[in-house]
Amino acid sequence: MNSKSLAITAVTLAALVSGAAIAQDKGASIKGEKERCYGISLAGKNDCAAGPGTSCAGTNKVDYQGNAWKYVAKGTCTGIKTPKGNGSLKPI
Question: Which of 21, 51, 69, 86 shows the greatest Cβ crowding within 10 Å of its Cβ?
Fold first, then answer.
């Protein structure tokens, strides 16, 4: 490889590595800005904690099950309206 090719390869790799680092930081930030919201998930679409008889993510049995939660943007849960009422920060 000539020096021009090596320089281009080095710049490309540096850009890829820094992009991956930024993406990881952003992912951590987004997770920190989320909260659990109970009673808003459709059947089989919960993120976790669906009560007795279920194990975790995707196991709630009915729409808007009060003890199943989904992650939502922090500060938005109680404003989410469902046919059974608003979302809750605690199990319903």
Answer: 69
Domain layout of the chain by residue ranges: 1-32, 34-92
| Beta carbons of 50 and 40 less than 8 angstroms apart | no
Q: Which two tokens stand for residue 40?
A: 């808003």
What single-letter amino acid sits at 72? V
The 3-state DSSP class for residue 84 equals coil
Is the full-model pTM beyond 0.90? no
Long-range contacts (CB closer than 8 Å, 24 or more residues apart) made by 73-78: 73/33, 73/34, 73/35, 74/33, 74/34, 74/35, 75/35, 76/37, 77/35, 77/36, 77/37, 77/40
41: left (phi > 0), else alpha (psi -120 to 50), else beta? beta
pLDDT in tens, 27-82: 444 556 999 999 999 999 999 766 665 667 888 889 999 988 999 999 999 999 99
- Residue with structure tokens 């998930």? 41
